[in-house]
Amino acid sequence: MKGVLFYIAVFCVGSLVACKSESPPEEVVPEPVLLAQVFNYKLYYSDIKELIQGYENERDSIQQVRSLTEHWVRDRLILVEAEKKFPKEANMEQLLEDYRQSLLRHFFEQKTLEEQLDTVITEADLLTYYEANKELHRLQSGILRGYYFKIKRPESKKDNILKLWKGFPQKNRDEILSYTLANGLTNWSDSSEWHEMKMVTQLFPEGTLSPGAIRSNQSVMREDRDYIYLLYPLEVYQENDVAPLDRIREHAARFILHQRELELLEKIKKEIYDRDIQDERVKIYNE
């Protein structure tokens, strides 16, 4: 291998020198440089030459040749091993033809979908799916969306955060969010995100809150020696409830698109069949 790499290096340097010569040398066709052989498979420098054209440094080029050769050897060894295990009774030509046809069908279907599939999904589409498939989306565990804050116990009697909390979120919303943003150890101000109920209860002191005690639009306050824990659930769904549409929106959209894909492909296949039958391009002899 070292000898081959040396030859390549000399060949590259010689080529650079020749390019600098004023008179062009006579065209000489070099002997193919064999880099590696695995059983009857052979790798020549010309096979990988295009892959190392971007290297200006000779050392980097040689390293790249070594790396590509090693990769090729490993790949061919696996191929040889696969050939040993390949069933003798298998018809390779038929397998290749089946694979070619499969690729053609795949290309046709993908092209058809790219050109003709309606990918716009409206709220009405989502609602139609939701109403028809509610029973498929019962929750295995409770979920909620709302506000949660963990704050240090107020040290000053002038701190009126707990009084403000009593009217949250209908009142004092901005004051609460501003306060918890500045003083909260944990601040869930994005009320659109859904959370697992079991995970939420673990944010409170152990044993102080159970999933069954959480209700929509009913605030929760717990405290220990150092912290106050505040929760305001806007929507609560217990275990085995039907999941809200917002929770399954992405799943519903994927399902609708998949159904449209199947329907479009079936429609196109039928149109092609009907067209070519009518034009007598198809003849069926066993009817």
What does this molecule look like?
The protein has three domains: 2-85, no CATH class; 119-137 and 243-287; 139-237, Roll (Chitinase A, domain 3). The protein has nine helices and seven strands. The chain has helices at 2-20, 45-48, 58-85, 92-116, 123-132, 161-165, 173-183, 197-201, 245-278, and strands spanning 34-38, 41-44, 143-152, 184-188, 194-196, 220-223, 227-237. Helix 1 (2-20) crosses helix 3 and helix 4 (92-116) crosses helix 9. Residues 13-21 have low confidence and may be disordered.
Task: Write a brief caption for the model.
This protein is α+β, with helices and mostly antiparallel strands and 287 residues long. Helices cover 49% and strands 15% of the residues.
Describe the main β-sheet briefly. Answer: 5 strands, antiparallel
Using only C-alpha atoms, the radius of gyration works out to: 35 Å
Shape: flat
Q: How many helices does DSSP assign? A: 9
H-E order: HEEHHHHEHHEEHEEH
Judged by helices, strands and strand pairing, the structural class is alpha+beta
Number of strands: 7
Which spans of ≥5 residues are poorly predicted at pLDDT below 50?
13-21
Q: What is the rounded distance between the termini?
A: 67 Å
**Mean of pLDDT:** 89
Percent helix, as a range, is: 40-55%
CATH architecture name of the largest domain: Roll
Per the CATH scheme, the topology name of the largest domain is: Chitinase A, domain 3
CATH class of the largest domain: Alpha Beta
Quote the beta fraction: 5-15%
Tell me the domain tally.
Answer: 3
